[in-house]
């Protein structure tokens, strides 16, 4: 028994942590770092959201009212970069930090010091990116996809800062991914076999491999842009023997797996929430794992569907069209499994479940418009219109972001030790789900009618729809303030949460008290 | 850090480095892929030897010529004729007119593109001004020749081939005296 007492003593000793800012700067605790990631992502979500508000304000009426076209282009570019690299990806990394060790019964992440680094370089990356907007000539204005020659021949010197910022974000993501893989592979509790892993852990493991495979390619690509611009390397310059279309191939070789990086962990979250509130085991666990892996593998074989209009030969077009449509199969398996999990379940509709249900419906709408875009002949019409904008916002906002919000509501009691305000949460849900559809659904129509994306002005016939979309946008932006209110309220106090606040929840994270102690599973649990 | 972690980190780091290298490897891979399949409309960057091919008089191919200076290139650049009809296997010469209306000498580099792309493999150049950089003193003009033939093996679905040249100002990369060497580098 003496070992137990020393272990307890050891625990207590560990809880002596530096106070104030030093605690957060030097922390190697997975829960602290998880919180930092999540709060950073929330801040970036509002910064990127503010830029979206500028975009919608300018597009409220036809003609130029509030901003210069060049500033508008900076807004679309920065909105995309910040939301992808600053909000969605760090938020998922934050959840991974908080939840993966608790879900697999590990005391912490495998590489706690690297974990500290991978978070703390991130704010500097975004500082560099944001500073570039205040330099003479303004920040990046070539779209988040930074196609050459826009980012090489026609860009200003802020491009160098953009490149360095992307490098740092890439390093951060790669370190985070290595950490996740090492943790999951080496630190599972005894008895936690591969096919017992919660799906959030599975999806993150696969996501981490995607990150390791594609972030280095992105790093190489921005380096090529940098050397093309400043050292005349001509990777993408036809005059020097290069080819601008090559840029698009390399970018989308990164870019398509990147979109799955932003959605696979979301699938994991939904697969945790739906069984909890349906009070049934997840239907088709094994098929979920295989479907996730299939999506990840297929994601490397579909990139050129972003490039149908560049003039590909027919057989290449057909290849990418068919592989793209093939992805609908494993994705369909997932949606089917979620629906089958709910079938005859004893369902209740707390806020996490509401967001999860909205995810399933709205993500499927985004998936269907994705299949439409995959059809090469019709893509010639949809390409670079608001239809594309509608598609990827359905999968990223009402998909990835809704899953993140659902995850926050689901695990808030575990993080804070308090129940969130259910009434306010429901208000947040209904405001969000109505406004997000006001915002993005009409974009399908203006896109089909031919309104091009990334242009600060538009033809008069689109005026009514755009006014409508902008109002939806402002409402969606305001609705997210309710979320902040709920968060602040829940962190500061509220009804005491039990260890397992959700009746149907399963998993090791519910076996530790709420709030989760600073150190959990110092002695690994035995998983049966 | 325990050994189990170190091995795995080593492997994963290797994967990171390999994928970074793969990003760069995509550049030559892309060129090789396009050259073999001809799907990008790129013609060979080196002359082919003028072996007398059998002339296929049973069909005629329309060759269209497009020439365009790049936005930053002040030369006037155009083909002598817009189109010609040729039998596959016949060797033809086509002249392009270049004029430098500015006061300074400018070096130009023409970059070819063939449409439809799949026909590029069957369009052979015996001699081309695009294989080398072209120097033109201010106020001068010159005729730049292209000697070519269409491969008789050209699949029958192609009846028209469009050859387009974009001319770039490469004065900053001009190395006098090393014209041929540097031209190879920029030959594509």
TrEMBL record, chain A:
UniProt KW keywords: Cell membrane, Copper, Electron transport, Heme, Iron, Membrane, Metal-binding, Respiratory chain, Translocase, Transmembrane, Transmembrane helix, Transport
List, for all copies, the residue spans of the domain called Cytochrome oxidase subunit I profile.
Answer: 24-528
Q: Which organism is it from?
A: Alkalimonas delamerensis
Q: What does this protein do?
A: Cytochrome c oxidase is the component of the respiratory chain that catalyzes the reduction of oxygen to water. Subunits 1-3 form the functional core of the enzyme complex. CO I is the catalytic subunit of the enzyme. Electrons originating in cytochrome c are transferred via the copper A center of subunit 2 and heme A of subunit 1 to the bimetallic center formed by heme A3 and copper B.
Pathway membership, UniProt: Energy metabolism; oxidative phosphorylation
Q: What is this protein called?
A: Cytochrome c oxidase subunit 1
Query: Where, per UniProt, does this protein localize?
Result: Cell membrane; Membrane
Q: Which InterPro entries match?
A: Cyt_c_oxase-like_su1_dom, Cyt_c_oxase-like_su1_sf, Cyt_C_Oxase_1, Cyt_c_Oxase_su1_BS, Cyt_c_oxase_su1_dom, Cyt_c_oxidase_su1_bac
Q: Which residues cross the membrane?
A: 36-57, 77-98, 119-139, 159-187, 199-226, 259-278, 285-308, 314-333, 354-376, 388-412, 424-445, 465-488
Question: EC number(s)?
Answer: 7.1.1.9
Q: Which family does it belong to?
A: Belongs to the heme-copper respiratory oxidase family.
Q: How does it sit in the membrane?
A: Multi-pass membrane protein
**Which reaction equations make up its catalytic activity?**
4 Fe(II)-[cytochrome c] + O2 + 8 H(+)(in) = 4 Fe(III)-[cytochrome c] + 2 H2O + 4 H(+)(out)
Source superkingdom: Bacteria
Q: Residues of the signal sequence?
A: none
Chief localisation class: membrane
């Amino acid at each position: 028994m003496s070992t137990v007492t020393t272990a307890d003593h050891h625990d207590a000793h560990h809880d002596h942590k530096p106070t104030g800012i030093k605690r957060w700067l030097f922390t190697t605790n997975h829960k602290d770092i998880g919180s930092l990631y999540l709060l950073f992502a929330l801040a970036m979500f509002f910064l990127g959201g503010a830029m979206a508000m500028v975009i919608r304000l300018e597009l409220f009426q036809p003609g130029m009212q509030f901003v210069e076209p060049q500033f508008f282009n900076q807004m679309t570019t920065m909105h995309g970069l910040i939301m992808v690299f600053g909000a969605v990806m760090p938020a998922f990394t934050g959840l991974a930090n908080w939840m993966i060790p608790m879900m697999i019964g590990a005391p912490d992440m495998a590489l706690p010091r690297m974990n500290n680094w991978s978070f703390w370089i991130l704010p500097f990356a975004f500082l560099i990116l944001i500073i570039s907007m205040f330099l003479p000539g303004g920040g990046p204005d070539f779209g988040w996809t930074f196609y050459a020659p826009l980012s090489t021949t026609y860009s200003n010197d802020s491009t160098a800062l953009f490149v360095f910022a992307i490098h740092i974000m890439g390093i951060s993501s790669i370190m985070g991914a290595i950490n996740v893989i090492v943790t999951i592979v080496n630190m599972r509790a005894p008895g936690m076999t591969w096919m017992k892993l919660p799906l959030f852990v599975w999806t993150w493991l696969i996501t981490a491999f995607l990150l390791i495979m594609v972030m280095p390619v992105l790093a190489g690509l921005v380096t090529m842009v940098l050397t093309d611009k400043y050292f005349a390397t001509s990777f993408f310059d036809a005059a020097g023997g290069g080819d601008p279309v090559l840029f698009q191939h390399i970018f989308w070789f990164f870019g398509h797996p990147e979109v799955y990086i932003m959605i696979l962990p979301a699938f994991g979250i939904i697969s945790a929430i739906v069984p909890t509130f349906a009070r049934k085991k997840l239907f088709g666990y094994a098929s979920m794992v295989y479907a996730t892996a299939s999506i990840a593998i297929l994601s490397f074989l579909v990139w050129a569907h972003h490039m149908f209009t560049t003039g590909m030969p027919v057989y290449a077009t057909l290849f990418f069209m068919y592989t793209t449509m093939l992805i609908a199969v494993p994705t369909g398996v997932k949606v089917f499994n979620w629906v089958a999990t709910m079938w005859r379940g004893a369902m209740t509709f707390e806020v996490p479940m509401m967001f999860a249900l909205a995810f399933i419906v709205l993500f499927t709408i985004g998936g269907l418009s994705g299949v439409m875009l995959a059809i090469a002949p019709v893509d010639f019409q949809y390409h670079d219109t608001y239809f594309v904008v509608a598609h990827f916002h359905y999968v990223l906002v009402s998909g990835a972001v809704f899953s993140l919000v659902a995850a926050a509501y689901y695990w808030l009691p575990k993080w804070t030790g308090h129940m969130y305000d259910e009434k306010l949460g429901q208000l947040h849900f209904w405001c969000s789900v109505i406004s997000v559809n006001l915002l993005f659904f009409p974009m399908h129509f203006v896109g089909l009618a031919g309104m091009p994306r990334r242009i600060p002005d538009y033809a008069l016939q689109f005026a009514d729809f755009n006014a409508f979309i902008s109002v939806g946008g402002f409402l969606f932006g305001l609705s997210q303030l309710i979320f902040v209110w709920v968060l602040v309220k829940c962190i500061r106090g509220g009804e005491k949460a039990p260890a397992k606040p959700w009746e149907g929840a399963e998993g090791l994270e519910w076996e530790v008290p709420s709030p989760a102690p600073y150190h959990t599973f110092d002695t690994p649990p035995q998983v049966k | 850090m325990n050994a189990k972690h170190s091995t795995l980190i080593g492997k994963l780091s290797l994967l990171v480095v390999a994928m970074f290298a793969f990003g760069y490897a995509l550049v030559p891979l892309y060129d090789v892929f396009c050259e073999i399949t001809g799907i990008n409309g790129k013609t060979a960057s080196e002359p082919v030897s003028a072996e007398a091919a059998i002339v296929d008089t049973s069909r005629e191919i329309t060759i269209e010529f497009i020439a365009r200076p790049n936005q930053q290139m002040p030369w006037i650049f155009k083909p002598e004729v817009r189109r010609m009809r040729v039998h596959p296997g016949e060797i033809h010469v086509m002249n392009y007119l270049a004029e430098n209306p500015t006061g300074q000498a400018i070096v130009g580099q023409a970059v070819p593109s063939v449409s439809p792309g799949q026909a590029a493999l069957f369009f052979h150049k015996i001699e081309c001004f695009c294989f080398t950089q072209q120097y033109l003193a201010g106020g001068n003009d010159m005729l730049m020749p292209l000697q070519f033939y269409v491969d008789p093996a050209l699949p029958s679905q192609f009846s028209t081939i469009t050859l387009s040249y974009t001319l770039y100002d490469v004065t900053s990369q001009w190395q006098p005296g090393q014209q041929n060497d540097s031209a190879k580098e920029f030959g594509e």
